[in-house]
Amino acid sequence: MRLLHADSLIIHDFTGRAVPPYAILSHTWGEGEVSFKDITKDRATGLKGSAELSEAINSMYRWYREAQICYAYLEDVTLSPSLKPNDATLEQASFSSSRWFSRGWTLQELIAPPVVVFYSNKWTELGNRENLRETISRTTGIDARALDGCLSEFSVAQKMSWASKRKTTRIEDEAYCLLGLFGVSMPLIYGEGRKAFRRLQEEIIKQSDDETIFAWARNDAYGMLLASSPSFFEASGSFIRADNMGEDSQGQLARDSLPFTVTNKGVQISLPVIENQFSTRNRDEYVAIVLYRETGTGSTYTRYRDWLVPISAYRIPSNTIIQQILISTKAEVDEDYLGRSMDGRLVIIQPFPAILAPITFVRMVQPEGRYTYGSPHFHDDGALSIMSPPKYLLFGQHHEHYKQNPLVVVFRSSQGATILISVAPIPNQTMIATISSHNRNAAGRWCFDRAKHDISEHDRGRVVAKILASGPDTTPLSVSANVRDADHACIVTIQTI
């Protein structure tokens, strides 16, 4: 490491243990910044390539931790030297909204040093981390105990949540700025993008058996076990490790810490696996991720969407056992992967036949309850694709209606008729689709009632709708909806009869 002598302004190189006591500076980078090259006036001197840069970033947390004191310079905070720093004056000076609290690299610079002293842009002392700990905790979401250096008390998910709202200039630095916080090292590969954060999580897993690394939520993350960004953990600040789940030899819910590993196919892990058990109570002691089993694979699972499901201890079946399973860590889930489970299917609705009058998409009707569809994806050829709801959303007989909660898509013809396409799972079958046409504006509740009626008519063989043809001959045509259960999705085709 290099240290600048405060009196002589001479830069010294130190290696190994022969490092004198030193102070360290923290600030956010701005325009016109004085660089190391400016200080040395030597364009050939600096970080000597990627190896030295990698060493510096992997060592940065340790450098801040071993400093005697850290001076944090907040360039966007102004406090007159005549004012005494207190809650009122700091609020007036916008201390809590300083850019310093929103940057990725300053997280370790806040936590690692034994002492942090804050200064305004005029070098007026604002206070230190100890006497400002409550204000800093409210501003950053970091537990005040962590500001005292007690990091071992906090889970992976909690630490990730501290970085969830912080920004870095380079995408890769979202991961690299957290290396020291989690006590891991890894090579730096600028240009790898989001893969850096995935590699960080894999390195954490190699050293920690804390399953809260999977306790994140994001509504557009189908099938992903590992998060793509710290922002996925924004709501995970209260998640701690669950060390008491599963049945031991005496039939009690208890579990010692069990190791898990990253393989080339996913994460091999031993966890209590609870079949179709979802709690709806308000006071919950655990959260679970929702998995579905890949067809024909035995113990290979994939994460279903982004859900974190609350589970109360008293709702966990007494016979729950720990199973060793493989959870796929695919970065993205392709259509082939999505289509192999009835607990949520990719549904593709093909374009209407050209002979029919121009028909436009209006909306999807959201079901009642806790499940909501994502936005449909529109294809260039006029088709649209949607993820259907899981077949079993909640447990218990009083939630039986969720098993037949249809996917309802509303279209409208140029003549103003409402066209409903309904897709639903049927016991002992795959999926069925129905189509019906109505001369009315369809409200959500009516659409659902009508969709269930259409499904019951399907069982009786009456599945034909009447839709006007295009062109001068507007004779109503008989139209049916048919499902082809392909490997990658349920494909709904609209056909004239």
Which overall shape is indicated by the principal axes computed on the Cα atoms? elongated
> What is the overall pLDDT average?
75
- Whole-number radius of gyration? 29 Å
> What does the main sheet amount to?
6 strands, mixed
How does the helix and strand content classify structurally?
alpha+beta
How many domains, as an integer? 3
- Determine the strand fraction and express it as a percent band: 15-25%
Q: Could you estimate the helical fraction of the residues in percent? A: 10-25%
Question: How many alpha or pi helices?
Answer: 11
Strand order within the widest beta sheet: 14-15-12-21-20-19
Euclidean distance between termini CA atoms: 79 Å
Low-confidence stretches: 42-46, 244-255, 277-283, 331-343, 391-403
Strand segment count: 21
Using brief descriptors, characterize the structure shown.
single chain, 497 residues, alpha+beta, Mutm (Fpg) Protein, Chain: A, domain 2, 6-stranded mixed sheet, 5-stranded mixed sheet, elongated
Overview in brief:
The chain has 497 residues and is of the alpha+beta class.
